[in-house]
Design goal:
Blueprint lengths: L1 H18 L8 H38 L5 H28 L11 E7 L3 H22 L2 E9 L5 E9 L3 H5 L4 E7 L10 E11 L13 E6 L15 E6 L4 E5 L5 H24 L5 H7 L7 E6 L4 E4 L4 E3 L2 H5 L4 H20 L1
Parallel strand pairs: 4-9
Antiparallel strand pairs: 1-3, 1-5, 2-3, 4-5, 6-7, 7-8, 9-10, 10-11
Helix pairs in contact: 1-2, 2-3, 7-9
């Protein structure tokens, strides 16, 4: 492990030197790759430097203990040595995690699809709660949001909404949200005060870059139709809505959010490319990912991942058996404790896999 860290530090120093050279930006593609690699190595190298400093400090303390010291000084050196040894152990654990294979999608923007599940109007209203939750989470983390498709009910519920979150590391934080989200509460439309259970499904896709997915236009069937939904002067008057079918896979994407047919087509293509990227990557997934899937779930939208219980004010993630009794704050976007728990579970599973 130490030899690997030394090699990474050497590589980091080589890239630092290369980026400082006058001709570094002549090849823009190569320059971007170097900047990306430099950024990825920076945190590892900084932690390794702290580790080597702790090792050096501990050696100095051991040398001092061989000298004739008064009892008080000896006690101080012993204390410092213990602290440096503890720091070394802590940094080694951190470095083990940093060296784990990184999900290539982690730094990507994400596309979130929310659909009402079982439960009629109540499921649609819960879908709207999830939409607001992700919008508030995006605000807290400085992510930019954009609606790619917006199909709401007349009472403000979600039939189907597609939302883009743009910001560094967005996918690394949001990828655990895919699955069935279940809600238990008394619906606003329920006069008897009975608790109902309904659900909404969430799919989280890494947004594909153009170079990652090539689409042959001959494989596309593009249909236009009149927009439907609540409100808007353009609704049902112009055929601005777009439906794209990818014939080889049968994937269908539609967008009616914009007045412009051209803009709707661009947005629909973004979603289609991301769905294709997810499809291709899932087909290529190797057995190495089995440990992570068993711990935090496969990301399959048919898998129940979380329950939001309003009478008890709790939210429970079934993959890691974590329950938080602050449902209101969670639905207001304060999700980090749960997401951090899911990330820890993923890393723990990866470390176990590495040990095997």
């Amino acid at each position: 492990m130490i030899n690997k860290l030394k090699a990474l530090k050497t590589r980091y120093e080589e890239i630092t030197q290369r980026l400082s050279e006058p001709d570094a930006m002549n090849d823009q593609a190569a320059w971007r790759e170097m900047v990306k690699e430099h950024s990825q190595l920076e945190e590892i190298v900084a932690a390794f430097d702290r580790y080597t400093a702790a090792v050096s400090g501990a050696e100095d303390c051991k040398a001092m203990l061989e000298e004739h010291l008064d009892p008080e000084m000896k006690e101080m050196v012993h204390q410092e040595l213990n602290e440096l040894n503890d720091l070394q152990e802590q940094l080694i654990e951190e470095l083990k995690i940093m060296l784990l294979p990184k999900d290539p999608n982690d730094d990507k923007n994400v596309i979130i699809e929310i659909r009402a599940g079982t439960g009629g109007d109540e499921a649609a209203l819960f879908g709207a709660d999830l939409l607001r939750m992700y919008q508030r989470y995006a605000e807290r983390h400085g992510y930019k949001t954009e609606f790619l498709n917006d199909n709401m009910t007349e009472i403000g519920g979600v039939k189907e909404v597609t939302l883009s979150l743009m910001g560094k590391g967005a996918y690394s934080r949001m990828k655990f949200e895919s699955g069935v989200h279940r809600v238990q509460r008394v619906p606003e439309t329920e006069s008897q005060g009975r608790i109902h259970t309904s659900a909404a499904t969430v799919a989280v896709l890494p947004e594909a870059e153009d170079v990652e997915v090539e689409i042959d236009t001959k494989d596309l069937q593009i249909d236009t139709y009149r927009s439907g939904g609540a409100g808007g002067q353009h609704v049902n008057k112009t055929e601005s809505a777009i439906r794209i079918t990818h014939l080889p896979t049968g994937l269908v994407v539609q967008c009616q959010d914009e007045r412009s047919q051209h803009k709707n087509k661009d947005k629909a293509m973004r979603v289609l490319k991301s769905r294709l990227l997810e499809l291709y990557q899932s087909q290529q997934e190797s057995a190495e990912a089995s440990a992570r899937r068993s711990m935090v779930g496969s990301g399959d939208r048919s898998e129940r991942i979380r329950t939001y219980n309003f009478p008890q004010g709790r939210v429970t993630d079934h993959r890691i058996n974590m329950t938080l009794y602050r449902l209101d704050a969670f639905l207001d976007g304060d999700m980090d404790e749960m997401i951090d728990g899911l990330i820890l579970a993923e890393r723990t599973a990866q470390l176990s896999g590495e040990a095997e």
